[in-house]
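FAQ: What does a ligand-bound record look like?

Like this one, built around NA7:
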Amino acid sequence: MPEVYTTWAWSKKFPAGEELRRYFQHVDEVLDISKDVEFGVRVTGAQFDAQNGRWDIKTNDGRLTHSRFFILGVGISAKPYIPKLDGLDCFEGLKYHPSQWPKNGIEVEGKQVAIIGTGATGVQLIQEWGKSAKQLVVCQRTPNIAMRMGQEDLSREGQDKRKAEYPGIFKERETTFSGMIYHTMKRNAADDTHEERQAVFERLWGEYSFAIWLANYQDILADPQANRWLYDFWVKKTRERINDPRKKDILAPLEPPHPFGTKRPSLEQNYYETFNQPNVELVDLKQHNIEIKPNGILVDDGTFYQIDAMAIATGYDAVTGSMLNMDLRNVEGRPLSEDWKNGARSHLGMTRHGYPNMFFLHGAHGPTALSNGPSGIELQGRWVIDAIKKMLDDGINSINPTEEAEQEWKANIYGISDKTLFPLTNSWYMGANIPGKKKEPLNYGGGLAKYEEDCWSVLKDWRGFVVL
Ligand code: NA7
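The answer part, i.e. the structure of the complex:
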């Protein structure tokens, strides 16, 4: 919204948490949102009361709230996943999952610390803790095929000059696959010679950030050979940055751990160089078991690391976990956890059969993790507003998607996913990071432009909904 962005300037291209918090405060000051928000309250149960045509929503402060519409914006990384790590409960030092990070951070200067997990969170923490810890022990299971961030300082003048272009940029986002201004090349990798491909990869590498992932050949995430060419490029670039041959093989192995870009790639600044520091140790959990002791970590080759503080950066029950964690029930009282036992189901990634007038944003079966969050959420938010307006205009009390429409939507998601390399990887995109969770594509991979078309075409005649 112009009133928000014309009165704000970022200091960095990728701002840190503190600046993001200030930005949210700014948004609140401009739009006056918090007067309508109850902070610190958790939903502990919700069910649609068909007789009265309203939702009954229970919260942990003992209240019961009624509403005609129920909109969930509960995020994709809200339910932490802490695996059963041998001895973890007995550890006597500080230990945190990043979801419970203390507000003032953790001071690691002069301390011996460990990080388990090398996803986006692990990568950021390793770069930070590596700077000041006396010793940092990183326990890695799968290497992160991380890409260069390209952090930049931004000036207010530079941003102000471009603000007139923002409406056009916001529009253009929705014509792309990811909601970011990256346009996939209209060529396959095999259309070019080896030299031409290297030149393309070099150019995209030089653009930093997600360019090499999202502005590459159109078959890079679908064709194994195209993907392998890209991995080989990445591995060469990355291995040059790591001094120790053992660490080189663990962090950037010559054989890909999974196809490039099919597990959420992280953006890094000096991640690989951090491992060249004498204070940073790397344990390969593919080769070694570890046991956590009250005062440290024992590796099965006999090495013992004394540890004062530990980050368990092992991720989240992503995409579906948050909605499954609030005792949502369908009109008959059956919990969503049972409904989704054999996999998530939805219509358009925003509504669910048996949950009339409930809308969810940035969750299962939407573009969600395969899109830039704000771009996808804004689009979905607009659709929810349009759907509610249409209901009010047409005198409709409730909408409820049919199971057939959900089956069709799910088949659509599988159809798109099965043409890519994503199903080959055990990632949280596929629900495969949580033991026992069904492995399936959790996100809509058709791109934002197609998604927009699919969603609004339904509003013409409520196709796929029972309307009362
Ligand atoms: P992620 O991306 O799910 O990463 C979790 C990391 O923890 C990953 O390296 C996992 O290795 C590792 N992990 C998980 N279980 C274990 C066990 N049992 N032992 C050792 N290591 C383990 O979570 P993040 O918090 O980093 O990022 C979440 C998202 O937030 C991110 O993608 C961005 O979209 C923002 P694995 O790969 O499973 O072998």
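Follow-up question: can I read anything off the structure? Yes, for example: DSSP finds 15 helices and 18 strands in the chain.
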